[in-house]
Structures are given as C-alpha cells and as structure tokens.
Amino acid sequence: MINYEKLNKFQYEAVMHDKGPALLLAGAGTGKTRTLIYRVAHLIESGVSPESILLLTFTNKAANEMKERAEKMLKEKCGITACTYHSFCVKMLRFYGKMAGISPDFTIISGPDEADIIDIIKSELNFQKLKNMPSASVFASMLSTCVNKRLTLEELLKEQKYWRFRQNERKLLLLREETKKYKEEHNLFNYDDILLKFNQMLMDYSDIARRIEDTYQYIMVDEYQDTNTVQFLLVSLLAKKYRNLCVVGDDDQSIYKFRGANIYNILNFEKVFPDAQVIRLEQNYRSTQNILNAAN
To answer: Rounded mean pLDDT of 31-59?
Structure first.
C-alpha cells in the first residue's frame, strides 16, 4: 500500500486525478517530481497497466530517476515508458516505420554532422565564397529554429538577427532543399527530423496512430513550460483519443529558449483542453518564505 501521508492537500489532489486532462502548476521546490512519482504509483496500484503509462521528460537522467523511485515505492518493477521526446519518437519510428514508408534503419545525426552536410552542398552549389551567407553551423541552427518555432525560412530571415542574409534568400532556399534531399537519399535524420517524422506518421497513418494511442493511454509530461510547438503537437496527437494527459510546469519560467520553447503551450493549456483540472502546488519545501518573497 502506498503511504500518502507525505503529500500535502494539493499534491494529493493531483495524484488522485487519474482521468482526463490536468495541468499542475508547480514552481521549484514544490515537490512536483514527488507528485509525478506518486501519481505513477497510484495509477498502477489502482489497476492501470504500467505499459500504458508514458512519462516524457527532457533528460534521460530525470526519466530514469522517476522510474526508479516509482519502482522503489511499489517494491516491484513498474514497466512504464519513461524517456525523452526524442528517444520515444526513435523507438516508435523504428517499430512502425515500415508501415509508414520510413526505413527503420535510419542514422541519427547531430548538429555538427548536419553542418558538415551543408558544407558539402555549399561546395557543390559554389556558394562558399558568396558574401552575406551564413556559415554551415549557423544555417543548421537557422533550420532548427524554423522547425521548433514552426516558421518558414522566409519568415526567419525577416528577424533582425538574420536580416543580413536576406539578399541570398533564394540561394538559402535552394541550399535547404538540397540539404534535405541529401539526407533523404542517405537515410539521415537529425533530432528535429525525428520529431517531425513522428508527428507526420501520426497524422498520415490513422492505423498506426490508433495503435500508439491504445498502447499509451496515460501520458505525463514534465517541465511542460519548456516544450516547443513541435513537442506540443506531438503530445496533443498522442492524447487525442483518451485525453488522459497530465502536464507539470512552472508558468513563471521557461528555460530552454534555444530549443524554441513556447511558454504559451502552458499558458493556453486550458484553451486547448477546456475540461482540464488545474491544480497549483504552492507549498515550497526548498526555500524559506523570505527567500520566496524576494524571488517573486
């Protein structure tokens, strides 16, 4: 039996909410990790299959820690899927890829790998000596920003940070297309491609989407304020059928700006899920009230 006495009133309320969408607003030190772990344990103890629980985090370390603590509480292996967005999508693409026309033996490339490919394409197009052309690493970063913020390259070039490259807009569009073609020919996916391919698979192949939805009927997302637009779409698609989506985040912070984090994902959660239960975890276990007042 799980001992719920260590939970305060609002943590307990969050743990007991096991059906429908829920938004847990929790600042640092309010016990959000403990709440998520108790919620996993409660679901399993109440009869939910561990294999139907998906916990998405930003780091494998956080995912493994939560899983281990849940198993310690339950005194048994709990069998949930706890991982990062990318590792989950890779797993699904390798398993279902053939059904969606995706070769499952794709190679994952990093940012520097992508920059090397861009350099190859720039050389083939004789773009290396052009003035006001971004370096390969900068252009790779620009393409990633377009994906994570769901911007076109033309829209990105209007931003002050990149406006000096606008005179080469047509050449950059060609460079992007040739880079994309090269990756497709060599079956190479970068980290953005992995999320995009997974989302597209869910939208284009209803039979695959149905299988994945039926497998993962309970979804929990940590650090929701740091999700970008692509990750928001991913979570929304996964939770479309059963709507058992519980997200945890702090609406006062957004750390991963470099990933295109969109704070409006958490601020507009109730508009997307109007039946969501909103619970605030406000009791702080890490700082004194004087420190909290100063921080606020």
So the answer is: 93
C-alpha 106/C-alpha 258 separation (Å) is 26
Which tokens hold the place of 17? 């909410």
Name residue, tokens 């600042």.
Answer: 27
Residues 255, 223: Cα–Cα separation, whole Å: 9
What does the alpha-carbon distance between residue 3 and residue 37 come to, in Å, rounded to a whole number? 12
CB 37 within 8 A of CB 11: no
List beta partners, residue 261: 228
CB of 212 within 8 A of CB of 96?
yes
Q: Reduced to 3 states, what is the DSSP secondary structure of residue 243?
A: coil
pTM of the model: 0.89
The dihedrals phi and psi of 110, each to the nearest 5 degrees, come to -95, 180
Averaged pLDDT, 148-159 = 94
Cβ atoms of 5 and 11 closer than 8 Å: no
Residue 169 to residue 206: CA distance in whole angstroms: 37
Helices of type H across the chain: 9-16, 32-45, 60-74, 85-96, 111-124, 136-149, 153-156, 169-185, 191-204, 206-215, 229-238, 264-267, 269-272, 289-295
Q: pLDDT by residue (tens digit) across 213-252?
A: 999 999 999 999 999 999 999 999 999 999 999 999 987 6
